[in-house]
# Entry
Amino acid sequence: MKIKSQKDFWSGLMFVATGLGFAWGAQFYSFGTSARPGPAYFPFGLGILLALLGALVLFEALTIETEDGEPVGKWAFKPLITICLSIAVFGWLLPRLGMALSLPILIIICSLAGDEFHWRDVLINCVVLTIGSWAIFILGLKLVIPLWPTFIGTGG
Amino acid sequence: MDLLHNLALGFGVALSFQNVLYAFFGAVLGTLIGVLPGLGPVATIAMLLPSIYALDATPALIMLAGIYYGAQYGGSTTAILINVPGESSSVVTAIDGYQMARQGRAGAALAAAGLGSFFAGCVGTVIIAAFAPPLTELAFKFGPAEYFSLMVLGLIGAVVLASGSLIKAISMILLGLLLGQVNTDVISGVPRYSFDIPELTDGIGFVGIAMGVFGFGEIIANLGMPSEHREVFTKEVKGLWPTKEDFLTAWPAVLRGTGIGSLLGVLPGGGALLASFAAYTLEKKSPGRAGEIPFGKGNIRGVAGPESANNAGAQTSFIPMLTLGIPPNAVMALMVGAMTIKGIQPGPQVMTSNPQLFWGLIASMWVGNLMLIILNLPLIGIWIKLLTVPYRFLFPAIVVFCGIGLYTLNNSSFDVYIGACFGIIGYAFYKLGCEPAPLLLGFILGPMMEENLRRALLLSRGDWSTFVTRPLSAGLLLAALVMVVIVALPSIKAKREQAFAEVD
# Structure
């Protein structure tokens, strides 16, 4: 069978899988009765409904002609991985190294996601954004964010 | 006169030094993000949510509202000058606005957009003040069954009027509703779908979803596209004041745009985007003056109408949020989240329990609109300079602010990881052509919807027919059904696709 719309095919699959997943997960909680709906009542119904709609999307993707087959296209893996990784690393480092060190690390890694990477520009960005964030969030909004690494001991 | 009394109270609040300052800050920020392509109001408001912990509820909401309508002004600037709409609601403005700029009439186009928006903003504010109280009265008559049906109508309305596939959009709502189920069940106290991760028993933070999908996801999508050459008409912005001829041509369009925008803004899912599309179509159908430039070649009505409409729609979309606690679009969903952070339960009781906040917010919109016209017309040169900032400086800044914002939500790294995960999910949505806004609406409304459904079923002893036997509830559900059927009809479907294709 030929797939008529790649985009719809994969989104339909995603909906069916998520819907069934939630409906399956609902069995671990009490379903209750219609008069006394339990914690599983609503998510089970929603999950089944989503799976049905997903199946409909899937059906359309296999039957309705489109002009170009609606390809998903190439995934931009470089920015995808770089950006998400830089954020996760930042989340891990911030409570440990403090803002003064983890922000420049975040900026350098995420700048690698772009087409152009110039050390001069990235360093300017690091200085401006780190000082700016310190001024806005710690000085201005008085949020409790560690500024220096914990082993230096001054906290934030 | 109640209305005057209420507005006087509101202006008393809005004109305090602190609140004027925050309205100004919001307006500046809104214009800024409106001008910068690739950064929308949803991501910005999500970024700023942590900062409102430090503020009182009233200045916080005034600032967030300023960002929203400020973005409508700013978005038109880039649409006219570089043919890149800063906001989706300015897509149609680019058609005629950019042509005007190419003919050296950028100033007139910017002025028409600015003055039209200001007029529409003033009218929109008055409409909110006049219609909010009676709607709240109505909302007090609602039981759980009515609320559930109203949310169904709201969610369905939010997608039938948008572009793209209807089934996929409804699926995205359901996906959002399901994500909202990751929490601790309010009635039985059982943690659901938490995989024994303690942070997940409080639910996934909506800020993480909003930032991941609308912030990170969009950055990844932007970086994945080849960089394009942009032509900026910066030197030609002279003669800001439109000619007398321009005025005569544009004012009926402003009136029509304001009318249609105010009307569509109130509808669930309407808001600014649909308003501008509808206004452009209306202008094309309306008879113009003799010897007018045709549409698509730089007709000033093609700028004035949609711009008035999107600003009027942005204002009146506050009505369902303020009176019923039901957000009609993603930005309003974040406003509901912001109110919850500040300990205010959104809904009809806000007007009576927090009159200062309610009327202060409404009055601040007029103050904000006045600031925007000053910010946008004489200071246009500054905003144009910003357009020349390369994206490689911009996106790390967005990532930094989002990262810090996520961490400060609960002072925990977990929210940052959630944001990163939703960055991946957001990019997947983009690649698969799934519109993410309905997901956010579903996510915000999910817990409320479940609570009302279960309460309604408890009251009716498990009888589902309660939703169709109570007249108000039945009417709301019927309206939702009619909307779906109409949009699904083949003849309308073709027209709807055509209408959206025209402006693409």
In short: Residues 6-63 of chain A form one domain. Chain A has a mean pLDDT of 84.
